[in-house]
Structure formats: structure tokens, C-alpha cells
Amino acid sequence: MQNLRWVLNLLLVSSLVHTSSQAICTSQDRAALLAFKSSITKDTTGVLSSWVGKDCCNGEWEGVQCNPSTGKVTNLVLRNSLNEPTLYMKGTLSPALGNLGSLQVLFISGTKFIAGSIPNSFSKLTSLTQLVLDDNSLQGNVPSCLGHLPFLEILSLAGNRFSGVVPASLGSLRSLSVMMLARNSLSGPIPVTFKNLVKLQTLDLSFNMLSGPIPDFIGQFRNLTTLDLSSNRFSGGLPVSVYNLGKLQDMSLERNDLTGPLSDRISNLKSLSSLDLSSNKFNGHIPASITKLQNLWSLNLSRNHFSDPLPVVGIRGFPSLLSVDLSYNNLNLGAVPSWIKEKRLTEINLAGCKLRGAFPKLTRPHDVTSLDLSDNFLTGDVSAFLANMTSLQRVKLSKNQLRFDLSKLKLPEGVSSLDLSSNLVTGSLSSLLNDKTSRFLEEIHLSNNQISGRIPDFSESLNLKVLNIGSNKISGQIPSSISNLVELMRLDISRNHVSGVIPQSLGQLMQLNWLDLSINALTGRIPDSLLHIKAMKHVSFRANGLCGLIPQGRPLNIFPASAYLHNLCLCGKPLPPCRKTMK
């Protein structure tokens, strides 16, 4: 989470106040650093190349800071951005790092390929206040010895490959304010010993395989501002003690197996700004007291079993709310609630809420950036409403009964994703894809409608990544200008009346990983140029009039035979061999 990263950066900066070095670094600390350097077999960051000379405290050893009076290393900070895939370190953590007896900050983050286990010698780093080893490839169990670091305030091991249970010894870290073990493969319950961690401000255990109930003692963490237990296997109800966390700002419990109702005491979470309980099994009514949360700006209760009626929201209810998601509950709303239509919301998500009738008229359409009203029973023409949503970026209205001609649709300039699939939309694609199409438009989903006409030529200014126009009445040929869609990753033209040959230029789409041309009237050969697309994960040429040898090379000859069946005379692996006259 971005705010957690910001907290770590802030705390790190505060611990790296620059002072001019005076004492030369000790031979023991220099040897420990060089042992770590030797354990790194490849360093494309170039950081360790600065580790030369006798004095590791002269300011030239990148990432190393020392106590100017003693020459002892106090901070070792090696950080790399995950957005730079070519910059990494490969190797292991040398046990010699445990000899840095005055080390207070150990921050080895984002190296990507430092693997192996955390050495047990780290238990000797008894002056350590910050241990951050996130976004590497470390594995094995989280070592129990980390519980022997009495002054540790920040522990982050997120984004590695740790497995096994969370060691109970971590409950001995009574000074701990930040614990982040997210994005590993940890299992089992939260240890009972964690009840001692009363100074915790941030607890992030997300994206693991942890199970059991959320322990009642979490309510004792009165300083907690961030609680993220999402994407685990936690079960049972939300303990009542959680509602004692008056300083809690961000609670993310989505994608678990949590059950039961929410308590009216939820209004006690007076500092709460973001609440995500989606993809659980919560039931009952959404408590009316939730509307009293003055600081709540993001509310996601989607994919649960909440039922009608929704709470009445007065003029002062939800004063800070910007984003709401109530999708896929047991709600039979009929119409969009008036408070949702009238509030200054930027994100509205009411998919699968049994909305009926004409498209709702919003009081503040210019504020909406994301709208999802899919899987409802909305009817009529939405083109005029969408034109008024001048800030709109993402719109999903699939699986309704909307009926209008594409020629009437005037999308706001900033729309990046449009999903009108499974409706009754008519007209031609040329109304949507032409020289005036916004460069911001990246995804178009129009499958399962009644769109006709030809596939238009594609201009070089288009930045489409997804074009899904399957199950329509589109005819004509695939234009050779398809090669202009250089960003395209997914192309689905299946179940139409498209004819002619597959253009060679299709092989220029190097980002393409999904291609479905099935159930059309295509003829000729599958072009060899498609062998150039190494990213391809799925293809289907099924049920056309194609003939000749399937290009023999990866990836085309490793897809299942079903991708090529029911054509005129295709042959060659994965189908039976060609006759000599057909090659």
C-alpha cells in the first residue's frame, strides 16, 4: 500500500541525518560489508562497485553510514525501484552482516533476486530499530531469532517467498510500531503472543494464507492506524473489540471468509477514512451508524451477503465520502439511492444490485471518474448521460438492456475503459473508432451486442490495449492497419461474419497475448508472421475456412488442437500432418 511505503520512507529519512565522518570504519565492520558484497553474485544496480578502499565510513560506500565518533556502521540502506526490472541484485544475505554490532537500520529492499534465508546471526543485531527486507526473493521460515531484537520498531519482510507459520517469538518485539509481512505464503493463525504488540501503528499481513479468527486482542492496539489482513483465509466474525480502535484510518479485510453482521458500534471508528470488507460473507443490514463516520471517503462492501434496506442517509451522513461500492450483495435497490445520486462522488459501483428502468440522472455527473452499473436491468439510451460526465475515466455498463446506436455516443475525452458488452447496442464501429478517437482510450468491450458494419481502419494515434467485439454482426475484412495498434494485448473478433484473409500485419503486434478469431468466415492460411508474437498465451482460429500448414513454431504449434478445429483444411502440429500437396 502506498501510504505504508510513505511511512517507511519518512521514518528512514529521519534516521539518515548526514554527519561528516571522522573515525575510519572498523576492520570488523568493513569485513562484514565485504562478505555481503561477495555473497552478491550479480549487481546490475552498480551500488556495490562503490565499496572499495579501506574506509567504509568516508561517504563513498553507497548506502553505508557510520557513527562519526566510533567508525561503527549504523545504517545499511540498499533500495531499488520495482519499476526498474533491469536493476537488481542476485545472491544471498551473508551471515557476516550479523557482525555489524552497532547497526540500527538495515534496509535491503527491491533487489528482486536476493534469495535464501535470513541468517540466524541477525539475532546479534541487538541495536537494530528498523529491519526492512521487502521485495526480494527470500524464502524459508521467518526465523524465530528476529524476536530477540529488543529495540526493533519497524519490521518489513513483505514481498518475499516466506512460508510456514508466523513465529510466536515476534510477539516479544514490544517496541514494534510497524509490522509488514504481506505478499508471502505464510499460513496458520496470528500468534497469541502478538497481544504484547500494543505499540503497533501499522499491521499488514495481506496476501498470505493465514487462517483462523481475527483475534480479539487486536482491539488492544489503541495506536493502530492501518490494519490490512486482506487476501487471506480468516474466518468467523469481526471481533467487537475492533470497534475500540479510535485511531484506525485504514481497515482492509477483503478477500477472506469472514461472516456475521456489522455492529452499530462501527461509528466508534471515528478516524476511519477507508473501509474495505469486500469478497467476504458478511450478512444482515448495513448499520445506519456507519453514515456517522465523518472522515470516511472510501467504502467497499461489495461481494458479501448484505440485504435490504440500505440505511437512510441524511444531509450530514457520509460527509467525506467519495467512493462507494455495494456491488453483488443481496440488495434489490430498484433505483439508485438518492444519496448516491446527490453526493459529490468520484466512484460509484452498484453492479448486480437489481437496478431497473432508465439510466439514473446524477446531480453531480461532472465529478464521477469511475462508474460500474453492470449486471442490472437498466434500459434505454445512455449516450446523453455519459457525455455530461466530463471527468469520466472508466465506465462499465455491461449485462443490462441498454439500447442505442453507437453514432449517438460521445465519450468524454478522458475515458480509458468502456464496457458496454451484453446489451442491445447497434450501429457501426466507425462511429467509435476513427481519427477523432481519444488517445486515452485503452479498453473497448462491446461483445454480445448487435453491432454491424465493417471493422474500420485503425489510425496510428490509437493506444488501444483491449479490443473485444466478439458476438456481433460485424462483416468485412480485418484491415491491414491493425498493425497500428502497437499496444494491443487482447483482440477478440469471434462469432461475427468477418471474411477474407488474416493479414500478415497482425504479426507486428508484439504485445498481443490473447487472440480469438473463431467462428467467422476467414479463409486462406494462418500467416507465419504470428510466430513473431512471443507473448501469446491464448489463440483460437476455430470454425473458419482456413487451410494449409499451421505455422510450425512456438507459440502456435503448442496450443491445443481445439484452437484449430472445424476449418477447411488446416494441418500440421497440433493437428494431423499435412498431405504433401498441401504444404
Beta-strand percentage range: 15-25%
Distance between the termini: 55 Å
Main sheet attributes: strand count, strand direction, barrel closure? 21 strands, mixed
| Percent helix range | under 10%
Strands, helices and their partners?
Layout: H1 2-14, H2 27-39, E1 40-43, E2 64-66, E3 73-79, E4 89-92, E5 105-109, E6 112-115, E7 130-132, E8 139-141, E9 154-156, E10 161-165, E11 178-180, E12 185-188, E13 202-204, E14 209-213, E15 226-228, E16 233-236, E17 250-252, E18 257-260, E19 274-276, E20 281-284, E21 298-300, E22 305-306, E23 323-325, H3 338-342, E24 347-349, E25 356-358, E26 370-372, E27 377-380, H4 383-387, E28 394-396, E29 401-402, E30 417-419, E31 443-445, E32 466-468, E33 490-492, E34 499-501, E35 514-516, E36 521-524, E37 538-540, E38 545-549, E39 569-571
Parallel strand pairs: 3-5, 4-6, 5-7, 7-9, 8-10, 9-11, 10-12, 11-13, 12-14, 13-15, 14-16, 15-17, 16-18, 17-19, 18-20, 19-21, 20-22, 21-23, 23-24, 24-26, 25-27, 26-28, 27-29, 28-30, 30-31, 31-32, 32-33, 33-35, 34-36, 35-37, 36-38, 38-39
Antiparallel strand pairs: 1-4, 2-3
Keywords: Leucine-rich repeat, Membrane, Repeat, Signal, Transmembrane, Transmembrane helix
Pfam families: LRR_1, LRR_8, LRRNT_2
Signal peptide: 1-22
